[in-house]
Design a protein that fits this description.
Number of domains: 1
Low-confidence stretches: none
Mean pLDDT: 85
Number of helices: 3
Length: 221
């Protein structure tokens, strides 16, 4: 809506002001959504960084334990033991909504009583320790995938929301405000012209009445 394609009428002025008010309300809603998403984003980024740090530490410890197990049992024996295990990682992928933003939820089906399934003849304390640590790594990977997926989705929506806020702030709202102001100026000018025209007509009518009275007075004499 702009001054180029709208008639300067009172009805259009009312409609333009309604549209302006609606755009301003929409901007407020979007700004609230953006602010909430920014808080969620900061929390998600913090959680992702903390999880990544924990994962690195756990991986280093797990590889150290595996290295010690290789030294104790031999790398070939450890490899054969790994091939014989039947443990599998199970992940469940779900989704949840944050202010209308769909984010992934990755759940690792962790078992509280997880134990190695290889025989005692093929094991060692170092290998058992590495097994539990790598199992913990799998759980941390699920947490990291959830945090990073959430961060990615929220960041994208924050950018989209900010673009919409900018469009309202710098394009639509100024356009509606300028259009309303232009219509008001045109209507005020029309009112002034109508006032002058009405005053002029009244003056002409009054002058005519005076002339008619003068004629009547002359005729009576």
């Amino acid at each position: 809506m702009s001054a180029e394609n709208i008639s300067p009428t009172r009805i259009n002025l009312i409609q333009t002001k309604k549209t302006l008010k609606l755009a301003q309300s929409g901007r407020e809603v979007l700004e609230r959504k953006r602010d909430i998403l920014l808080r969620e984003l900061r929390s998600s980024v913090f959680h992702a960084e903390k999880t990544r740090e924990d994962l690195i530490v756990e991986l280093m410890q797990a590889y150290q334990s595996l290295k010690e197990a290789n030294m104790a049992k031999g790398s070939e024996a450890i490899a054969n033991t790994a091939l014989a295990t039947t443990h599998q990682a199970e992940y469940l992928i779900d989704y949840r909504s944050i202010m209308g933003v769909t984010v992934p939820v990755v759940n690792f089906q962790a078992k509280t009583d997880v134990k190695p399934d290889y025989g005692f003849a093929n094991t060692s304390a170092e290998l058992d320790k590495a097994f539990k640590q790598f199992y913990r790594v799998l759980e941390l990977l699920a947490h990291l995938a959830k945090a990073e997926g959430t961060t990615f989705q929220i960041a994208n929506d924050v950018r989209r929301t900010q673009r919409r806020v900018n469009a309202l702030n710098y394009v639509l709202i100024p356009r509606y405000r300028n259009t309303a102001k232009w219509i008001e100026l045109v209507l005020e000018e029309k009112d002034r012209e109508e006032f002058v025209r009405t005053k002029k007509i009244k003056g002409m009518i009054k002058k005519k009445e005076e002339q008619e009275r003068e004629i009547e007075e002359v005729e009576e004499v």
